[in-house]
């Protein structure tokens, strides 16, 4: 079981050569996991991983994945994750802060998340792997006069290649129905505002549509109401904090925008079928 801390650790990936960008390619012939990676944590950068060889088992926000060779995965700074096992791996990593990311790419990353590991076809995998190799060469040439510009541009090219693959596997926006478009935008707004905005009517107001119509759109595409999605997002963050930190239930309620601690506790119990403390105790040794 992971060690608990007062709050979920945010592991710094900073590099003194270029504080906003980190790159590396590592290989292990046997299972070696950095102690930090074994513990639940967030990263302070937008992280991309290209698994070039072997397999990796990872848990991201309570979802377990086995990542196979020739796969790529994007992890947003908000996502809590930890590595459970590795086997004979070669993995390339590049990570950027929001400031270094092309604004258009940053917007697209917010739109497509959360994403699952994506298995690439051989041609695409080879293209991205070669691009990573070139970027790593730039990364090593820290004395170049245009070092930061070259590194920023090359890493953004890698980000664009990954985003394009995720978009290719998603349904194009122009092919979405009106209901699906509303649902997509609602989920983006929910991700940004779930701590401060709790009522369906407030989301409808942001979208400039009526509350009944918003509910109709969401129910049509997901099978669930707007309230359900709001509650699920709040409870996911509550679970993260209960499981990965030692904050009290009252502290967690406050962090999630609830001054009325008993109300938050009732909401959590209604959604999960157990109290916050029962959830915490169940998931601890």
From TrEMBL:
Origin superkingdom: Bacteria
One GO molecular-function entry: sequence-specific DNA binding
Gene3D superfamilies: Homeodomain-like, Jelly Rolls
UniProt domain HTH araC/xylS-type: residue ranges: 180-282
Keyword field contains Transcription regulation: yes
Pfam family, one: AraC_binding
UniProt xrefs under InterPro entries: AraC-bd, Homeodomain-like_sf, HTH-like, HTH_AraC, RmlC-like_jellyroll, Tscrpt_reg_AraC-type_HTH
Keywords, comma-separated and alphabetical: DNA-binding, Transcription, Transcription regulation
Protein name: AraC family transcriptional regulator
Organism for this UniProt entry: Chryseobacterium glaciei
């Amino acid at each position: 079981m992971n060690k608990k801390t007062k709050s979920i650790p945010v592991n710094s990936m900073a590099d003194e050569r270029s504080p906003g960008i980190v790159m590396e390619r590592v290989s292990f012939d046997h299972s070696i996991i950095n102690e930090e990676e074994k513990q639940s944590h967030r990263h302070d950068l937008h992280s991309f991983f290209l698994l070039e060889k072997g397999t990796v088992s990872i848990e991201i926000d309570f979802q377990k994945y086995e990542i196979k060779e020739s796969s790529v995965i994007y992890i947003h700074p908000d996502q809590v994750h930890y590595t459970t096992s590795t086997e004979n791996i070669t993995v390339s990593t590049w990570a950027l802060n929001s400031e270094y990311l092309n604004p258009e790419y940053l917007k697209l990353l917010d739109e497509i998340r959360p994403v699952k590991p994506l298995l690439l076809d051989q041609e695409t995998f080879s293209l991205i792997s070669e691009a990573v190799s070139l970027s790593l060469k730039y990364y090593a040439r820290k004395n170049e006069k245009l070092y930061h510009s070259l590194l920023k541009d090359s890493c953004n090219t890698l980000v664009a290649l990954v985003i394009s693959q995720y978009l290719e596997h998603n349904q194009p926006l122009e092919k979405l129905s009106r209901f699906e478009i509303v649902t997509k935008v609602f989920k983006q707004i929910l991700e940004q505002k779930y701590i401060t905005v709790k009522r369906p009517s407030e989301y409808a107001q942001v979208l400039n549509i009526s509350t009944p119509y918003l509910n109709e759109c969401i129910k049509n595409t997901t099978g669930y109401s707007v309230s359900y999605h709001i509650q699920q997002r709040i409870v996911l963050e509550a679970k993260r904090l209960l499981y990965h930190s030692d904050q009290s239930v009252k502290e967690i309620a406050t962090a999630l925008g609830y001054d009325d601690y008993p109300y938050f506790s009732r909401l959590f119990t209604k959604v999960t079928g157990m109290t916050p403390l029962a959830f915490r105790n169940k998931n601890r040794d």
